[in-house]
Amino acid sequence: MPALSEADAIIVGAGAVGMAAALALRHHGWRVALLEQRPPELVSRSPERVIALSAGSCQLLDSLGVWADIAAQGVGHIRHIRVTDAGNQPTVSLHHYEIHSDALGHVAEMPHILAPMWQRLNDCCYCPARITDMSMDDHGVELRFQYEQQSHRLRARLLLAADGTHSQIRRMSGICTRGWPHNRFAIVASVRFSCPHQDTAWECFRRSGPLALLPMADGRLSLVWAVDAAEAATLLPMADDAFARALRVALAEIPACRALGEIKSVGRRGCFPLTLQVASELRRGRTLLIGNAAHSIHPVAGQGMNLGLRDVADFIELLKGEAAPDSSVCLDHYTQRRAADIALVTAFTEGLLAATAPETAPARLFRKLGMRALQPRTPLKSMLLEHAAGVR
Known about the structure:
alpha+beta, FAD/NAD(P)-binding domain, D-Amino Acid Oxidase, Chain A, domain 2, 2 domains, nine-stranded mixed β-sheet, 11 helices, 20 strands, globular
């Protein structure tokens, strides 16, 4: 039987959210063990895995000492957001100067986010590690896992599950999920247009689903195009010129997108299913769910990764308090606060999808009135801006 090792906290999952949590805990003097099943991808690939980070998320990464290294590898700046609907509906424009900020957010490739964090955490990471058993009591959590062909036991006061949508820790903790598939797929690719993107992100609501374009560092735009299964099966194997023509037809439904000019080139395509999945509990004893282990939402409005990083930001507030952050009172307060944020974001994204999907005359009128209501600077628009920037 191998000797029992101890840590203050175990984090399972070395994605961006898991590693951000590990950095935060180490910054506050905690002994951290990070377990990951497979090494993260630290080199750019095609199709690029691109993430829109809100201004609030960038501030968090800066406080953890990694934002400068991320930005040095090249990031796109979101200084303007244009929200537009099919047909001749008004376009809502959101601008960074309306909240007195340099940018509403930034666009980074996932390997560029992961690499500087991995470099700082390599000394406390077990990778690849395969978890075989888990037990909990009132004082902590114990994991058994395989690492370097040996069995290990590790005990800690707290366990953070950041192991993704199909979380093993969530399942082993007996926590259920609720939600539904959207029966849609996201086609992702990079696209270069003839006109400069001018640091503008686009959220376009078409009859068959939303289409987003995010400004990248090199002048291209990252495409996230929601389609049904039949469309995905047709679009994915297309040659580049045929895919460009199909995208041109889709964008023709959005008159405002003419400002982008002609499509000059498209990159390789990727595809992933769109679902809503929220854990029924964020905490079971001394186990906390964070990131996609706790919530996986539709990418409309770009809130997924930012919601996970807000899990970390709220946990940091526990670390700053005078009470022990792993006490039941503190953990209950944390889960209540996070549950409220998750419920709000979920309601917003699902409500947005529900409002933009129907093509009935009342639904079109509702969208038109809603877009017009957001034209002037109003408290509603200010709230939308602050949520988009992740500072509310």
